[in-house]
Specification:
The complex is a heterotrimer of chains A (about 375), B (about 230) and C (about 240). With about 230 residues, chain B is mostly helical. Chain B has a single domain (about 30-230), classed as MetI-like (MetI-like fold, Orthogonal Bundle). In chain B, helix 2 (about 30-65) runs parallel beside helix 5, helix 3 (about 70-80) packs across helix 5 (about 100-120) and helix 7 packs antiparallel against helix 9 (about 190-220). Chain B is built from ten helices and two strands, in the order H-E-E-H-H-H-H-H-H-H-H-H. The two termini of chain C are about 40 Å apart. Classes of the chains: A alpha/beta (about 375), B mainly alpha (about 230), C mainly alpha (about 240). The interface of B and C includes residues 91 and 171 of B.
């Protein structure tokens, strides 16, 4: 596959300093991939990204988009073909949302109805009501503004998207939501994205490939998230990724990736003797009450089992209810939050699929199966 | 003092006989209108000239971010120039007449417009400007489509200041041979005490009218989005 | 003596010109006449002094009023827009007009000038005091409140000191503008340097105008620097931060 963006010995020096902000960077980004540039502040990742649309000019070397050197393009025209999203968003306060989104199409001379149609399409794509188009930025929340920023960058259907800490200024809850939405968007439109962040967790979540950078824009490792976590190339990467690499791997898996335990199932009105029989030798030592459609209702307590038949209301509450599609890290968080040893896992229809516990997770991480499996490169947890 | 509001109003509307001019009439609506128009004409011409000179320079320097010492320093120095001395000097050295007065008044209007243009552009939030550049707007497009609309309040404040300074100084244009409402004031031996008061009232009204008009213009020019974000 | 020095300095910038039958200063083409300047420089002393007096009194009076108004409005937010507008209207009315509207009330002479000039300074000073107080970081006020300071103490010990730069900036603008405007005092028989520009019913001549104008500007800058020095003195913490 032809690379969408290629850095060839790209170098940036400021003034007459001898140290380069970006020193002979060589990197290839495949089309349709999200390439994350991550590293400590000052390592040159933002500068490297800006070399692509010439908001920072190359000192030496070259950057090629689709095989064409950026040096040979007029900067303004070049930028109209690259989407650009910055941390502070930078919406034009004096223009409506619709006018903001339509900025580049307008610069390119599109017809009014085409711009209007595209604006509506984009606002819906980023999860906003098209009616908001008539409002002004000051009337929107931070999360909404950031979505408009993304829509604006996509307006003219650019070849490449440049995103510089786009979700950095948002609160953590909305940030997660926006990240998920962007990944969903990317699954639909498949743009080539250069994404800069200083947050390794964000990098792992968002990136198809990650370039861990150190000062001078030097690439310490360029690999998929899984490779990064399982086989860090050197001490710098190891330190940067963090000692909790194992936990981080959980972000790459889903509950469905693991073989779950089974709990003995009980129905309302069933004879408790049967249930007690099932309990012997079961993986999970607690019976789970389910309804006629095998949907979990709660856990049966000792007192419940002392009765003749299974009561309609279980002694212990259900606690956290997980989904097969859940990201493993979130599932673990729910387990720990609910202070539950075991959590019922339901499938898409709400029917019981198995039981998850912390033990299962840690066993799995330690197992050889987890080490050799290839995760995350193409399929992303949604 | 034998001037009164009543007397002043009379002066404005009815021609009065004056002792000094040997019975020739002074005052009255037609003379008032003539002098007001003169003053207005001077103001408009001088303002236009100042705008043409100061606005481009201020906007350019502000956009490029250079020349702060010049722009701000000019504002400070301009404030210290005594208008009377400026006009008097121009009249004595260069000569009298509408053209000379216009130039002198324009000189007065340049500092506030230039300084405010510079400061206004500089104070615009960097994020929209950065986004605009990254999206592919040319430098000129950034200046006209992003920076200027966002700098309207400061820009207009400078223009309003310049207008008031110009119309105020146009009052003493009679010293340079251009008859404006200030004639009632300066040559009050001809026009009498009522004329003096009338002159003061008329100049004040003229200035307020201009200020009001410009405030309305500013409101028109300020984008609704800008007003919302300032709130 | 200072005035003579100013005349000496001017020598470096202007060239002397030969005179014909008319005395140097009478020729309209001569921008600056040294001989006349040297001889008559003393005659500028009184007007300059009057000028300084007028300005000083006006600014002090204007400041006192504007400051008081701003303090009143500080606690009662709803007063701020109307006060700002009211002071703004006075500011808009050209000083000359203001002089003459006041004439029937205060009569010819210095009082009229002072009232008018004070009124003129109101808007700038009021606006800057209000803005200066508004820009005080709320963290500082919160801390002070938490320490048990009364509202009054917070105002005088925390808010006002922190607002000094903004306030003094307004004072400087007001003062410099007032110096320039005070030349109009001549039209009201109140003296000042305007008398050297517009004598009894006629413009004087270039040399006199230049000296008068130059002196006015010099006075303006002197006031400006003094105020700046006072500000530096009163806000030692800013110097420390910049050091």
């Amino acid at each position: 596959m032809p690379s969408a963006v290629r850095y060839e010995n790209a170098t940036k020096r400021y003034g007459d300093s001898t140290t380069a902000a970006v020193d002979r960077l060589n990197l290839e980004v495949a089309a349709g991939e999200i390439c994350v540039l991550v590293g400590p502040s000052g390592c040159g990742k933002t500068t490297a990204m800006r070399l692509v649309n010439r908001t920072v000019e190359l000192s030496e070397g070259d950057v090629l988009i689709g095989g064409e050197s950026v040096r040979e393009r007029d900067p303004a025209r070049l930028r109209r073909e690259t989407g650009y999203v910055i941390q502070q968003i930078g919406l034009f306060p004096h223009r409506t949302i619709a006018e903001n989104v339509g900025t580049v199409p307008q610069l390119l001379g599109w017809k009014k109805d085409r711009i209007a149609a595209r604006t509506t399409e984009l606002l819906e794509l980023v999860g906003l009501d098209p009616e908001l188009g008539e409002r002004y930025p000051a009337q929107l929340s931070g999360g909404q503004q950031q979505r408009v920023g993304v829509a604006r960058a996509l307006a003219a259907d650019p070849l490449v998207m440049l995103m510089d800490e786009p979700f950095g200024a948002i609160d953590p809850i909305n940030r997660e939501r926006l990240q998920n939405e962007f990944l969903r968007l990317q699954a639909e439109i498949g743009k080539t994205v250069l994404f800069v962040t200083h947050d390794i967790d964000e990098a792992i979540k968002m990136g198809d490939r990650i370039a861990v950078m150190r000062e001078g824009g030097r690439v310490a490792q360029y690999a998929t998230p899984a490779e990064l976590l399982m086989a860090p190339a050197n001490e710098f990467v190891e330190d940067f990724v963090g000692a909790d690499r194992a936990l981080k791997r959980l972000a790459l898996m889903r509950v469905s990736d693991i073989s779950l335990w089974e709990a003995p199932l009980a129905h309302v009105g069933q004879a408790t003797a049967e249930v007690r029989e099932k309990l012997r030798g079961a993986e999970v030592p607690y019976p789970l009450l389910v309804d006629a459609e095998r949907r979990p209702l709660g856990w049966l307590s000792e007192r419940d089992l002392a009765l003749e038949t299974v009561p309609a209301r279980p002694g212990s509450p259900l606690g956290p209810l997980l989904d097969l599609d859940d990201v493993m890290r979130d599932a673990l968080a729910d387990l720990l939050q609910g202070e539950a040893q075991y959590a019922a896992v339901a499938d898409r229809g709400g029917r019981i699929a198995g039981v998850l516990s912390v033990e299962i997770i840690s066993e799995f991480l330690a197992s050889p199966a987890a080490k050799t499996e290839e995760h995350g490169a193409v399929e992303r947890p949604k | 003092m034998n001037a009164s509001i009543g007397g002043a109003i009379e002066f404005i509307f009815e021609p009065q006989s004056s002792n000094v001019t040997g019975g020739k009439e002074v005052g009255g609506l037609s003379q008032v209108i003539e002098l007001t128009l003169n003053q207005l004409e001077l103001t408009v011409l001088a303002l236009a000239l100042s705008l043409v000179v100061a606005l481009p320079i201020g906007l350019y320097l502000g956009h490029r971010g250079v020349g702060e010492a010049l722009a701000v320093g000019l504002g400070n120095v301009g404030r210290a120039v005594p208008e009377l001395a400026l006009i008097a000097l121009m009249a004595s050295v260069v000569g009298v007449g509408v053209l000379n007065m216009t130039v002198a008044l324009a000189v007065l209007g340049v500092p506030p417009i230039l300084t405010n243009a510079f400061v206004g552009i500089r104070q615009v939030d960097r994020a929209p400007v950065d986004a605009a550049r990254g999206m592919g707007m040319t430098e000129a497009e950034i200046l006209f489509k992003v920076e200027m609309p966002l700098a309207v309040p400061t820009l207009m404040a400078g223009i309003r200041g310049a207008t008031i300074a110009i119309v105020a100084t146009a009052t003493i244009a009679p010293l340079a041979g251009v008859l404006t409402l200030g004639d009632f004031i300066i040559n009050n031996n001809v026009y009498g005490q009522n004329g003096l008061l009338a002159g003061g009232i008329l100049v004040a009204l003229l200035a307020l009218a201009l200020e009001f008009g410009l405030a309305g213009l500013q409101r028109l020019l300020t984008s609704k989005g800008l007003r919302l974000s300032a709130a | 003596m200072i005035l003579a020095a100013v005349g000496e300095v001017g020598e470096g910038f202007f060239k002397e010109r030969t005179s014909e039958t008319l005395p140097c200063q009478a020729k309209s083409t001569h921008l600056f006449c040294f001989d006349w300047a040297k001889e008559n420089i003393d005659s500028f002393a009184t007007p300059a002094q009057q000028h300084v007096e007028i300005v000083a009194i006006s600014v002090v009076a204007g400041f006192a009023i504007a400051f008081a108004l701003a303090l009143v409005a500080h606690r009662r937010r709803w007063l701020q827009p109307p006060l700002l507008a009211a002071t703004g209207v006075i500011y808009t009315v050209p000083s000359l007009a203001l002089f003459f509207i006041l004439l029937p009330v205060t009569g010819l002479g210095r009082d009229t000038v002072i009232v008018a000039l004070s009124a003129y300074t109101l808007q700038v000073i009021y606006r800057n005091v209000t803005t200066g107080l508004a820009n005080v970081p709320s963290a500082a006020k919160e801390a002070a409140r938490g320490m048990g300071m009364s509202e009054r103490q917070i105002l005088w010990r925390v808010e006002l000191p922190l607002a000094v730069p903004e306030i003094v900036a307004g004072l400087r603008i007001a003062t410099v503008s007032t110096v320039a405007l005070a030349t109009f005092a001549v039209f009201i028989n109140a003296g000042g340097l305007g008398t050297k520009i517009y004598g009894s019913g006629n413009l004087t001549f270039p040399t006199s105008i230049v000296i008068a104008g130059g002196l006015a500007m010099a006075i303006a800058f002197a006031f400006d620097l003094i105020l700046l020095a006072v500000q530096r003195r009163v806000t030692p913490w800013r110097r420390a931060a910049q050091a």
